[in-house]
Amino acid sequence: MKPDIQLGRSQELIVVKITDFGVYLNTPAGNDKNKILLPKAQVPKGTQLKDALQVFVYKDSQDRPIATTLEPELELHQVARLKVKEVTSIGAFLEWGLPKDLLLPFREQLYPVKAGDAILVTLYIDKSERLCASMHVYEQLKNNSGYQKNDEVFGRVYEISDNFGVFVAVDDQYSALIPKKEVFEHYRINQPVYARVANITEDGRLTLSVRKKIPEQMREDSEYIMSLLEEAGGFLPYHDKSDAQAIKEYFHMSKNAYKRAVGRLLKEGKIIVEAEGIRQK
């Protein structure tokens, strides 16, 4: 296909030939070899030679470039959440607003998907010049959200890294990360996340925290520790020397957050700090 006609994108093309089964389109400078068909059923009434039409270019079931006036839910290098229609021996097929469903190859899946799932994907051209979907969306997410520090945001988990943390697509469009040190619970792919913008990196990507500002979070943490104390009969074997990972796993907070909350409870006279742990008064 001539590069001027862009596979996987919406574009304005010119009517260069009219037939009984549709019209052929091309760029103004395109040669006769590179024209593509817009089927008759989609040709706007009254279309004439040299008219300009807005179309999307993809490939039909015979792998031939073809135009459509339908608007797909996803274009090349964009990101969108699409529904899985079925899973076959070659991969999953996604609904995206065109008659031919979009293939999500197994190698482009971050986890096995099933019919009915709504998944975040991007559109790319594979080595065979076919349009395919991929769940590897990190590079295609935007970094110009306009959100500011401490803004509340909503997103969904799209990838989890043991090294970096939990990757979140804010508004299904913007790149964000809950850093590993801020991960205090088990997350799953597609899990909804309500968070606060803790920082914005130099390249515009969002760093998130699911915890509130320190004064408010300290109050909630201290209330949570008190509830755990009551459930445990008034004593918990955690103290300043306790392992940070053990505190994280039990209380779902960092050791520093635990110490701040315990300090608040101690100041309020609600607990006693002993050598082996904390005790409710």
Topology of helices and strands:
Layout (H helix, E strand, L loop, with lengths): L9 E10 L2 E5 L9 E4 L12 E8 L5 E4 L10 E10 L2 E5 L6 E4 L12 E8 L5 E4 L17 E10 L3 E6 L3 E6 L12 E9 L5 E4 L4 H18 L3 E2 L7 H8 L3 H13 L3 E4 L2 E4 L1
Helix pairs in contact: 1-3
Task: Explain briefly what this protein structure is.
By secondary structure, this protein is mainly beta.
Compressed to H and E, one letter per element, the order equals EEEEEEEEEEEEEEEHEHHEE
Helix segment count? 3
Question: Which sequence of strands runs across the widest sheet?
Answer: 3-2-1-4-5
Structural class: mainly beta
CATH architecture of the largest domain: Beta Barrel
How helix-rich are the residues, as a percent range? 10-25%
| Termini Cα gap | 78 Å
CATH superfamily of the largest domain: Nucleic acid-binding proteins
Mean pLDDT score: 90
Regions with pLDDT < 50 over 5+ consecutive residues? none
Shape: elongated
Q: Percent of residues in beta strands?
A: 35-45%
Write down the CATH class of the largest domain. Mainly Beta
In CATH, the topology of the largest domain is named OB fold (Dihydrolipoamide Acetyltransferase, E2P)
Indicate the radius of gyration in whole angstroms.
27 Å
Number of domains: 4
**Main beta-sheet strand count, sense and barrel state:** 5 strands, antiparallel
